[in-house]
Amino acid sequence: MPFEHSDQDAAERDDTRAGTELRLIGQPPLQDHLDFVTRHVVGGDSISRAEIIDAWRVANDHYAELEETEAGLADGADCLELPETMKGEADALTRQPYFRKTFDKVPTHLAMVELNRLVASQRHVTLPFVKDLATQLSPRPDDAALFRFCQPVERKDAEVSVRRLGRDRFAFFSDSNDLRFHDGTLLSPDQVSGHQSFGPVAGNLGLFVGHGSNFLTVVRSDERMVLHNGYHRACALRMAGFTHAPAIVQTVTRRDELEVVAASAVVDDPAFYFRTWRPPLLKDFFDPSTTAVFPVRRKRRVVEVTYTVTETDMEDI
Questions:
Q1: Rounded distance, CA 307 to CA 290, Å?
Q2: In whole angstroms, what separates CA 35 from the centre of its chain?
Q3: How far apart (Å, rounded) are the C-alpha atoms in residues 275 and 224?
Q4: What is the pLDDT confidence band of residue 95, given thresholds at 50, 70 and 90?
Q5: CB of 111 within 8 A of CB of 80?
Q6: Mean pLDDT for the chain?
Q7: Nearest one of 19, 26, 71, 72 to 52, comparing CA atoms
Q8: CA atoms within 13 A on the CB side of 172
């Protein structure tokens, strides 16, 4: 079978395959897991569906046991005040434009959160990347360096290439799955330089593609926190022996607020993450009974932008 159950030793073994994915299994829906293995795992289409389901069922049975032995474990995870040694870095972060633009919707603060008991809505991480990040944490960093690791203001994003596919079509390519369309906005002529048009320009329409803010963030409701962004860094911290990390905490009090700050998986089924006795947790990525390591096919993120121009003469009424 071209995948193996993970364990603590497996998580620490040298594995430089760019397409090696550590994935939580055993949580519904089963069909999603079947589709993942058969479509994305190297050699997955040759594995019998019964074999895939058997492995999933074992993990699902383990989660049923956890519902008895760890009921309510997600409730009341530590959400502690930042130490004084991080306050300077935190102040600098809150003045950062990406921060102000991203976290302007619901009450937000910075806190030290307990990693193990964060609810996990994302079911996979790229194992070599997690290991690379974990090595950056040795020797053990001071508090300021740890804060910058979790909340990187200075960053080096993956390379992006752009191709023109037609008169009105452009494609952006990156190895990072964080590449995304940002928004569109109207620009004045003096905001764009370097373009020579065939006549006077009346205005410009800007369509922006780039990366996300890339901060380690959680969404909190009542006594639970769902890890929203920063899964690779959170797993790297856990792998390196850290129990708590500085995170941006967004607090919601109703579903309407959840819809504007949370990932689609959480918005679609909030009761699963915030109400079930034992949802998937970050610590499950380090449990051999709930994880498997898969060799997956390499993927590139492609964002295609297409625009339409309509020219019409309208009579005044």
A1: 45
A2: 21
A3: 9
A4: very high
A5: yes
A6: 90
A7: 26
A8: 19
* Residue 214, Ramachandran bin (φ over 0: left; ψ between -120 and 50: alpha; else beta): left
Give the tens place of pLDDT for each residue, 41-64. Answer: 999 999 999 999 999 999 999 999
* pLDDT for position 176: 82
Residue 10 has pLDDT above 50, yes or no: no
The two tokens of residue 92 are: 């600098």
User: Which of 282, 193, 180 minimizes the C-alpha distance to 231?
Assistant: 282
| SS3 assignment, position 37 | helix
| Amino acid present at 314 | M
Which tokens go with 46?
A: 């040759």
Query: ∠ CA(170), CA(173), CA(177), 5° rounding?
Result: 130
Helix (H, G, I), strand (E, B) or coil at 248: strand
DSSP per residue over 90-135, as a string? HHHHHTSHHHHHHS-SS-EEEEEEESTT-EE---EEEHHHHHHHHH
Alpha carbon dihedral 239, 19, 148, 106, in 10-degree steps, equals -100
Residue 306 CA to residue 206 CA, distance in Å, equals 12
Helix (H, G, I), strand (E, B) or coil at 171: strand
How far apart CA 304 and CA 58 sit, in angstroms, is 40
